[in-house]
C-alpha cells in the first residue's frame, strides 16, 4: 500500500530530540524523505536518522544554528543538495519546530533573553519560511506547519511572558501568510501543543503538576501525539485546511 507522503521531501527544524524528533520519525514512516536539522548535538541527530533508516525510511542530518540568519541561509541552501540533489531544489513540507523557553518574571528579564526568544522562535521561522515558501510557490504545492503553543493564544500561567509573546507572533504569522499564499497551492497552518513531556518541559519537573491539572485529560502529552497532528496537516488531502492553528493540548485551553 502506498504511503501518504511518498516522494515528498520534508524539513523539520530542531529535530534531534523532543517533538521535532518524533515528527521527523513520523513523517518518514508516512513515506517522506526527511531533513533532520540540529544545532548542537550531532550524535542525537544521527540517532534520529539511524532510527528512521532502521525502520526502512529515508533521512539526512543537516547542521544549522537557527538562532542566526546565517543558519537559516545554510539550511535553505542544504535543500538543493538533499539526498544527492534528487529533489532538484523542490521541498514539499516545512515544519518550523525549533524553539526555546526561559522561565522567570518579565520585570527581571534580560535583553539576552529577549534576543534568544525572538531570534529562534520568531525571526528564524519567518526568514526560513520566506526562503522555502518561494520554492513551494514555484512548484504550486507545499505544506508549512509552525509549532506555536497553547501559550500562542492564551496565558494560563505567569512567568513565561517573553515566550508567550513569541508564540502569539508565530500564531499571527501563520494566519497572515495563509491569507497571502492561499491561492498558490501552499497551505500554512500551526499546531499549538499543550504540556508535552520533553527536555524543554519534563513532566517530573518542579511545578509540572500545576500544568498537568490545567489539562482535562490529567496528564502531559507525548511528542508522538503532536507528531500525529502535524502528519495530518501535511497530508496531500488536507488541502482545504489553511490558516488553522490546531490546538493539541489535552483540553488545557478548553
Ligand atoms: N514541550 C512542550 O510542552 C511544548 C509545548 C508547546 C510548544 N512547544 C514547542 O514545541 C517546539 C519543540 O519543543 P520541544 O518540547 O520538543 O523542545 P526541546 O527543547 O526538546 O527541543 C527543541 C529542539 O530545538 C532545537 N534547537 C534549539 N536551539 C536551536 C537552534 N539555535 N537552531 C536549531 N535548532 C535548535 C533543539 O536542538 C531541539 O531539537 C518548540 O517550538 C516549543 O516551543 C513545546
UniProtKB/TrEMBL annotation:
Is Lyase one of the keywords? no
- Keywords carried by this UniProt record: Oxidoreductase
PANTHER family noted in UniProt: OXIDOREDUCTASE, SHORT-CHAIN DEHYDROGENASE/REDUCTASE FAMILY (AFU_ORTHOLOGUE AFUA_5G02870), SHORT-CHAIN DEHYDROGENASE_REDUCTASE FAMILY PROTEIN
From the Swiss-Prot or TrEMBL record, give the protein name: SDR family oxidoreductase
Q: Which family does it belong to?
A: Belongs to the short-chain dehydrogenases/reductases (SDR) family.
**Source species, domain of life:** Bacteria
Q: What is the organism field in this record?
A: Herbaspirillum rhizosphaerae
Stored SUPFAM superfamilies: NAD(P)-binding Rossmann-fold domains
Amino acid at each position: 500500500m502506498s504511503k501518504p507522503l511518498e516522494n515528498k521531501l520534508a524539513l523539520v527544524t530542531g529535530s534531534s530530540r523532543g517533538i521535532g524528533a518524533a515528527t521527523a520519525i513520523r513523517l518518514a514512516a508516512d513515506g517522506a524523505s526527511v531533513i533532520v536539522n540540529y544545532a548542537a548535538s550531532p550524535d542525537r541527530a544521527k540517532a534520529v536518522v539511524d532510527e528512521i533508516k532502521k525502520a526502512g525510511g529515508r533521512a539526512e542530518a543537516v547542521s544549522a544554528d537557527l538562532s542566526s540568519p546565517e543558519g537559516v541561509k545554510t539550511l535553505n541552501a542544504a535543500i538543493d543538495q538533499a539526498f544527492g540533489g534528487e529533489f532538484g531544489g523542490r521541498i514539499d513540507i516545512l515544519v518550523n519546530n525549533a524553539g526555546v523557553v526561559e522561565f522567570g518574571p518579565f520585570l527581571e528579564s534580560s535583553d539576552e533573553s529577549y534576543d534568544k526568544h525572538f531570534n529562534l522562535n520568531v525571526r528564524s521561522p519567518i526568514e526560513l519560511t520566506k526562503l522555502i515558501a518561494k520554492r513551494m510557490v514555484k512548484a504550486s504545492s507545499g505544506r508549512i506547519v509552525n509549532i506555536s503553543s497553547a501559550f500562542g493564544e492564551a496565558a494560563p500561567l505567569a512567568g513565561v511572558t517573553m515566550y508567550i509573546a513569541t508564540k502569539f507572533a508565530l500564531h499571527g504569522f501563520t494566519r497572515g501568510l495563509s491569507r497571502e499564499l492561499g491561492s498558490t497551492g501552499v497551505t500554512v497552518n500551526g499546531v499549538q501543543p499543550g504540556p508535552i513531556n520533553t527536555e524543554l518541559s519534563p513532566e517530573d519537573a518542579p511545578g509540572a503538576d500545576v500544568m498537568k491539572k490545567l489539562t482535562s485529560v490529567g496528564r502531559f502529552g507525548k511528542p508522538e501525539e503532536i507528531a500525529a497532528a502535524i502528519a495530518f496537516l501535511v497530508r496531500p488531502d488536507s488541502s482545504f485546511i489553511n490558516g488553522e492553528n490546531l490546538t493539541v493540548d489535552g483540553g488545557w485551553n478548553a
